[in-house]
Structures are given as C-alpha cells and as structure tokens.
Please model this.
Amino acid sequence: MSGWQDFLAARDIWREPLIASIVAGALCGFLGIYVVLRRTVFVSAALTQLSTLGIIVALILEETMGVEAEHAGVQLAVALAFSVAGALALGMALHGRRLPGEASVGMCYVLAGALVVLGANRLVHAAHDLNAMVFGNAVAVPVSDLVVLALVAVVCAAVHAFFAKELVFVSFDGETAAALGFDTRLWNGLLFLTLGLAIPVSARALGALPVFAFLTIPAAAALLLVGHLRRAFVVAAVIGVVAAAGGYLTSWFWQLPTGATMVSIAGLFVIPGLFLRKG
Amino acid sequence: MSPSAPSTLVAVEDAAIGYGSPFLRGISLNVATGDFLAIVGPNGGGKTTLLRALLGVQPVLSGRRVQNAPLRIGYVPQRDHVDAFWPLTVAEVAIMGRYRLIARGRRPKGVDRAAVTTALDRVGIADLAPRSFRTLSGGQRQRTLIARALASEPELLALDEPTSGMDPPAELDAMDVLRELHRAGGLAVVMVSHRLEAVANYASRLAFVDKDRQLFHVGSLESMVTPDALGELYGRRVNVREENGRRFVYPEPGGTA
Model:
C-alpha cells in the first residue's frame, strides 16, 4: 500500500483541493435538482461560460492595463460579478415575452464562449492556466478559495433550507404561485442568485466543464433513482460528493485529468437509474 | 351589480388589458360572494389575460382594479402548465395551496395537513394522497389541483380551462365537482373556458371575450345563452336546445347571423 502511504504523506497537497471538490460536488449536486427540473440545464452552461469570461476579463485587464488582478481573490470576485449578473439577467430572460427563453440562454452561452476564445487569444502570460480553469484541475486550491466556497455553500444551504417551500412552489408552478400572491420574480431571482454564486466558486475548484456536469448529472441520476423530491435533493448531493471525491482520488492514483475523471464517475451513477422502473 | 357593492370580492373598472399595449379596453367586471362566473371566448381571445388582471397577477394598463379587503384566492392553472415531471406526491402538491398562509421560513404543521386531507376528501381523492402526482390520470391531476386550491380555504376559486383536454365524462365529472363546491356555500367561482357548452349548465353569469373582434359582453346565463346573443358573439347562427334540464349549444352549418 505504498500508494496510499504516499498519498497520505502528501496530505498538504491534496487536503484543500479534496475538501473543495467535496463541498462543490455537494453544492452543485443539490442545486442541480432545480436546474434539471426547471429545464434550465443550459442556464448553468451559460453561467459557467460567463464566470470563465469574468476570469479572462480580469486577466486581460491585468496584462494590458496593468490593473492588479493576478490575485486569485480578485479573479474570483470578477467571475462572481459576471455570474451573478448573468444569473439574474437569464432568470428574467427565461420569462420574457419577446424571445423564447432558450434563445436568450443560447445566445448568452455562445457569445460568452466566443469571447472566452477571443480573450484567451489575447492572453500572453496566463494562457497556460486556462485549461485548468475550463476543464478542471483541482490541484491547487488556495485556502482563501476554500473559505469563500464554504461560505457560499453555507449561504446557499441556509437560503434553500429556510425558503424551501417558496422556491419549490415557484419552480414547480410559478403561475399558481403568482396568483396566490407570491412575488415570483423575487423567488426566481433568489434561486438564480444562489446558482450565480455557486457556479464561479465551484468552477475555481473543479473547473467550468465539471461544474456544468455536476449541475446536471448527479441530479439526473438522483431523479432516475428516487421518486421523491426531498430524497432526490439528498441523493444528488451525495452523488456529487462521491463523484467529486472518487474522481479526485482516482485521478491521483491513476494520473488522470481530475475534472474529466470526476465527470465520468458521476456519469456511472446514471446507469442504475436507467434500469430502474419506479412510480 | 356595482363593482363597489359590499359583496363584491374583486372587480376591474373601465380597464384596458394586454401585454405592453392594450388589446381590449373599457372592461368592467366584478365578482361577488357566491358568484359563478364563466369567462368564455375563442382560444387566444384574451380570457386568461382578463382572469390574471382580475386576480391582480397582471396589472391593468388603464382603469383600475378594485379589491376592498384581503382576499383568499384558490387558483387552478391549466393542467398542461403544471410540470408533472416533478417527483411530488398528491399531498405535497395539494399542500402548496397552504403556503400563502404559512410564514416565510416555516414548515407546514398539523393544521395544514388536516386542511389538505379535507380538501382531497372534498374532491374525492383522499386515498390518492401518497401517490405520485405524475402517475395520475388527467382527471385525477385536475382534482389534485382543485384540492390544492381548496386547501387555501379560498373565498374565490379561479380556474383556467379546468376541463381542457378532458374526455366528456371526465369533463362532466370535473364540472360536477365544481358545482358541488359552489353549492356547498359562499365560494365564488371564476372559470375560464373556450368551450361554452362546458359551462352553459353550471355558471350563473357569462363574460364573453374576443380581442380579435374587440368584443366584451357580460351578463346572466339566461341573457347570454340565447340564439340571438350567441349569434352576435360567434358571427353565425347558433341554436340552443334544452334536454333533460341540460343546455346544448351548437352552431348551424353554414349559417351566418
């Protein structure tokens, strides 16, 4: 078991990244239930692109204008700003009457993606970091990032624990909720705000692509496995944790790309549900 | 009846309704305690918009909406608008009707669960409480949504196309449930339907809405369900026949008014 001994001896290297992966996996898995059931999977894709764009904008400002943005906290703040603004805007666009909601989300996704490519093309010094940002690396997570992630997770957990009935009602049947006097814009805004907060801080730990995957796959697997909403939230969070931790450990021992390994393990949880028939 | 009469629950006065720009103006309509009002018209004619304006979900573009006191509303949306994919039980869907009565951050209590049981019992599906909503038939889902509306102990029950997509027996069944609830006392019912025949034997008043023809009429069922009134509404000759106490409405083939 020298592999395990080496692994345990290197705990200073993997401790923060592993904890961050677990927290991000649980957070994204939980929120993914809303993402999947509200049929807004591509909103999370667009938001991950926007948060990546935020990081690139911060890096470009640093390289071209000498604005001090090299500090990870500054990059994260800009990514958060992009993501939260995008989440609130997309939350409103989904209920727009002039364009179908998917069109707004699609435009946001491809435009943000194009700007990421254009921005990356302008970067000179930080270009090598982009692969980790987009596809996930989870090798180096500073303690400050872990603290921010934990804070966001606590805030999201508190919001969803405290306002569960309002968020579920407005998501399940917004029309009736509005008729009964619920401010659906407020509650939808709050839900998308938690997504807008969770995505960039999780993307710092897992990478943008894994975050998109973790907002979709654990929830889909949970909804296939269990036929009850409350249990689905719990199962999705657990699958997120197992896939994140399992993916991290697997990638460590087999020298595999971390983000892709996490996503692949999450995908395995979909298989049993496909063969399960439930009411 | 004047919109400001004491028994009026809610009214719109000289209202213009629409999205951004008005598509119907000069609408005055009130709902009083114990009323059974059906809003009828063609698909896309503005019925749901009028209902939403009446309920205050959508602001009127001009004129005003009057509601003299806080009003407990039970709302039944179009069945297709409720996403049956959510893994919720019948009881969990029905208890959402209580959420307006429960403070933010608080969970439903025994009194709320008791109200849900009573509501499910009133629409005859108490035994379905633990069943998954998505496994129900269309008629059972509709009853669940009506039970949810009743769970809020409403003074006004508003329904948007409650029998849409139902086969005739299920439609009669659902309408009979509504009639029983209405007759049980005090409850005002406002329902939207594109099928006049579905409401012609149940409502006490009709409001006819067609934005394309800039038409808005409201009156008692007796004054509205006549060949002359319906001929003007539909732009063609319409027959009204009564058989065994039920009204049947059918247009004459090729007949213009």
